[in-house]
Amino acid sequence: MKKLIIGIGLLSYGIANGAPQKTKPMIKDSTKILVVFHSENGGTFQMAKAIAEGVESIADCKAILKRIPDQTNKKQAWDNLPVVQVEELPMYQGIAWGSPVYFGGMSTAFSAFLSQTIPLWSEQKLAGKPSTVFMSAGSGAGKETAMLSVWHALASHGMLIIPTGMAGMAQVDKSVPQGNSPYGTSSLAGAGGERPSASELYLARLQGARLAEIAKALQGINPKINDTSEKPSKNQEIEARLEKMNITLPQVPEPVGNYRPYTIVGKLVYINQIGLKEGKPEFVGKIGRDISEADAMQNTRTTLLNVLAVLYKATDNDWRKVKQTVQLTGFFNTTEDYQNHAKLLNEASNLLVAILGDKGKHARASLGTSSLPLGVPVEIQAIFELE
Description:
- By secondary structure, this protein is of the alpha/beta class.
- It has 2 domains: 2-231, Flavodoxin domain (Rossmann fold, 3-Layer(aba) Sandwich), CATH 3.40.50.360; 262-386, CATH 3.30.1330.40.
- The protein is 34% helix and 21% strand.
- The protein has 10 helices and 14 strands.
- The strands form 3 sheets. Strands 1, 2, 3, 4, 5, 6 and 7 form a 7-stranded mixed β-sheet that branches. The chain has a 5-stranded mixed β-sheet with strand order 8-9-14-12-13. A two-stranded antiparallel sheet has the order 10-11.
- α1 (2-16) packs antiparallel against α6, α2 (43-56) crosses α6 (198-219) and α9 (293-314) runs parallel beside α10 (341-356).
- It starts with a helix and ends with a strand.
């Protein structure tokens, strides 16, 4: 027991006296830290990214950034990040929690998510796992009571709460107000100037590094936090496939007319997308004349990812709601003598099954056309069935 206390004391000393320190590998498997946040105006999101940077400054530690969806349905820059699921929480060796401050407490969306963790509490699935809290506030009033309100929930779960103490205070710019607190870092969004400030982000990186170092140290000796044997949900399996293939779904294209990106009729979702990348045509022209077959295949994959981005939104960011793919129809802007339409659509079919597994298998049709909107070479119509 004395050895453990001394080890953690040394880790804390390293963080308290400056920037995050690289450590030598101590374990074979990486230490996975979940950084979960709810953000409305971007402050908590920026802090979450800094926490994640701090986590990954420690050798063999990996940060997984996930969001709690906003209840306003307002389009946000972080909408493409995966949504956290309650059942995945036990799979991490540590968790950093981030929320805006609401009247001296956590945000409504954050509180609603915590209320869903009661089944984990009843089985003490999170007991012994290190955790830390960060926030974004307006004036800063009530930020410490807000952090303590989150602490109360984490203590009920039996989690180890990692405060920041006075780490990094010697390096903070004291000429402007900062959102520091011994309980956790925060940003004073209403204090003027660029927020989060450079000092606030610096403290957040220190906080992430401290959490990662302690989680990593405990991982080798505490079987409770080292147990990641929970069976992944279908949601996690699909997200893991996307990560393994280094795929980030694009932002859902905004409609440019009087229509919707998808329509749900009964349990069927209807989606049409063309080959846009970052809102612009990836290629323009006819396949077989202006566009090579290789580029057409690439554009088919791009179009399919646009379809999946819309599907993800249609399911409220929950892949578990997808029961099966019913139909894919590929439209290809080709020369009259082109005949490899099925070969092109194979790119979409193969990618869909690689991501969704058996849920991605489908019936399909491929057609040649004389033109497509904006001169793109590919359009895909998809029909999915929901649970």
